[in-house]
Amino acid sequence: MKLRIRILPIIGLLLLMILYAPASVPGTAPCSQLASGAKYGFLGFLVPSVAACPGPEFTVTANPSSLAINPGATGTSTIVITSLYSFSGTVSLSTSPPPLCPSPNCSTWSINPTSVTLSPNGTASSTFTVTAGTSSPTPGNWVNVTVFGTSGNLTRSAIVKFTTSSTPDFTMSVSPNPQTIQPGATATYTILMTSINGFSGTVSLQTPLMPCSTYCWSVNPTVVNVPAGGNATSTLTITTTTGIKPGNYQLPVLGFSGSLSHQVTAYFTAVSSTPDFSITANPASLQVQTGTTSTSTVAVTSLNGFAGNVSLQVPPSPLCPACTGWAINPWTVTLSPNGTATSTLTIYAGGNPTSGSVTVNATSGNLSHTVTVNYTIVSKSSDFTISATPSSLGIPGGSCATSTVTVTSV
């Protein structure tokens, strides 16, 4: 949630308005709204939005944030650390308070790993594990454990609460989480509902009722039946628009059944869709007999709408007559948006067994990618053929006939 300040001139007066507005997504979005145009404010007048861009930051969240565990059993929560505003660095993780007494009577907990490294606007995760004691806490009493993330003078936290329970309930999890999505692409998550303590019944799934703007989502099915001791799944689909800004986003999913409710959060990072290309070789490894040739197909594929010429280069071949050489043809391929073009790398095996590799360098403007083809030169095997002329004979009784057998070296 962010504070947004709006200034409204009314008949020579300045009316300062402080509006409390939800930040729809964490990351770079609030700063991007500085130039997003005016919005209607108090009394319906059109007023400009004024917001300050904070410095590098990170958040700590727990998924799920509550656990109901049978005595003696183990539960886990995924701790997600998310970079905001290009924060990068190492974040140390710790928990508080410490366990009150040793297991198995008391519950114990830990976090692993105890530090993570964030890239700008990226995410990292750690696992909080709790083993419920046989006598503490008593069923129905909740224990709150705070997970702290610290980097320099920044400290952020999330709370995981747990209880021991024999009451029928269910848990929720979402995977894979987080994900990376390019503009105009789609990602799918699996939401898993698991019965505990014999719970059985229907679980309804809800997502925020917000308009589809920079990304859209759907859950299917929205109602699942969880059998006692079993589980059920639903699919969350998130599709980004081509205009989504790079950054970190999140979408909560609420599951409820009667008076029971749990929530999971799906995280994703929208990345830049800069036009690019990739290069592959098939096969990537060749075995060639001495004195012969073999080929590998080099495929160049457009990414994110890249179009243009791509130059292909290989190192010069050795000049000695008995050495292994190579060549690529054509040297230049032309890509259409999201298309593929191919070239052929030919290996000319010399007279001596050897092994090596050829690296194909593909360039277009300031873009450059490589692929390596390995080769092994083996001696041409010695062999022979055998034939008989004629291959069949009809011999009258008391006579003889001949057939010539020819053995030929190859």
Description:
The protein has one helix at 29-32, and strands at 2-10, 13-21, 39-40, 46-47, 49-50, 57-63, 66-69, 74-84, 89-96, 108-112, 115-118, 123-131, 143-151, 154-164, 169-175, 179-181, 186-196, 201-206, 215-220, 223-226, 231-240, 247-257, 260-270, 276-282, 285-289, 293-303, 308-313, 325-329, 332-335, 340-348, 354-364, 367-378, 384-389, 404-409. It is mainly β and 410 residues long. It folds into three domains: 2-50, no CATH class; 57-270, Immunoglobulin-like; 276-378, Immunoglobulins (Immunoglobulin-like, Sandwich). The strands form nine sheets. A five-stranded mixed beta sheet has the order 7-14-13-9-11, with no helix packed on it. The chain has a five-stranded mixed beta sheet with strand order 16-23-22-18-20, with no helix packed on it. The protein has a five-stranded mixed beta sheet with strand order 25-32-31-27-29, with no helix packed on it. A hairpin with a 2-residue loop joins strand 13 (143-151) and strand 14 (154-164). The radius of gyration is 34 Å and the shape is elongated. The termini are far apart. Mean pLDDT is 83; it is low at 1-51.
